[in-house]
Amino acid sequence: MLYKFKGRIVASSLVLLLLIFIRTAVWMKIGRVPHLIPIPGIIALIIAWLLGRKYDETFFLSMKDPLTGLNNRRYVHFIFPKFIKTAQRKKKKLVVFVYDVDEFKQINDHYGHEYGDQILLSVSKVLESDITKHDVIARWGGDEFLGLSLFSDLHEIKAKIDSLQSKLKELAKSFEKKISVSVGYAVYGEDGKRLHDLIEKADQNMYRNKHSRKTV
C-alpha cells in the first residue's frame, strides 16, 4: 500500500521541488544554470529518502501488534475510511467482524500467560490464513480480534465463518486445552456507519453467539 512509502515520497518530493525552485531562481537571475547543485542535490535526495524511510518504518511498526504481528486498532481506524470508499466503488458490502477467544481468562489463570500468548499467536495465524489479500485482520486488544472484509453477497459470510471454525477445530488438537472462538459481525449501512457503532453491534452479536453455542 502507498502509505508504507509515504515518508519517502513526501520527503523526496519536497527536496526535489526545492532543487527545481533553486535552479529556476538561478536561471532567472543569471540566465543560465551552472552545474553547482547536481551533486549536492543528489546527496540531499538520498538523505531525504533515508529519513523518509525511517519515518515509514516507525509509522509501520506503530500500526502493528507486537505479540502477533497483526495490524492493531490504530491501523483499523486509519484504514476504515478507505475501506468504505472501496466498498462503495466496487458496490460491495463492508462487514466488520469481531472474534473473541472463549474462556481465555480461565486459560491464562490455569495454564499461565505464556500458554495464553501461544494460543493468541496460533489463533492470529488461523485468522490471517482465512482472509483474502484485500481483507484486514487486527488484534483489537486482549483476546479480541477484528476483521474488515468486503462481500458481494452476505450469504458468503456464513461460509467464511464455517471455514474459520473448521480451521480452529484442527488448531485445537495441538493444545491441551480445547479452544474455540466466538464470532460476531455487523454490516456497514445496515447496522451503522461509524466504526464504533459497527464494532458495538458486532460485539453484541458475538456475545449472543458465545452464549448460544458450546465450546468446540
UniProtKB/TrEMBL annotation:
Entries under Gene3D superfamilies matching the protein: 3.30.70.270
UniProt domain GGDEF: residue ranges: 92-216
Family annotation (InterPro entries): Diguanylate_Cyclase, GGDEF_dom, Nucleotide_cyclase, Rev_trsase/Diguanyl_cyclase
GO MF term list: diguanylate cyclase activity
Membrane-crossing residue ranges in chain numbering: 35-52
Domain of life: Bacteria
Annotated signal peptide: none
Keywords: Membrane, Transmembrane, Transmembrane helix
Name of the protein: Diguanylate cyclase (GGDEF) domain-containing protein
Pfam families tied to this protein: GGDEF
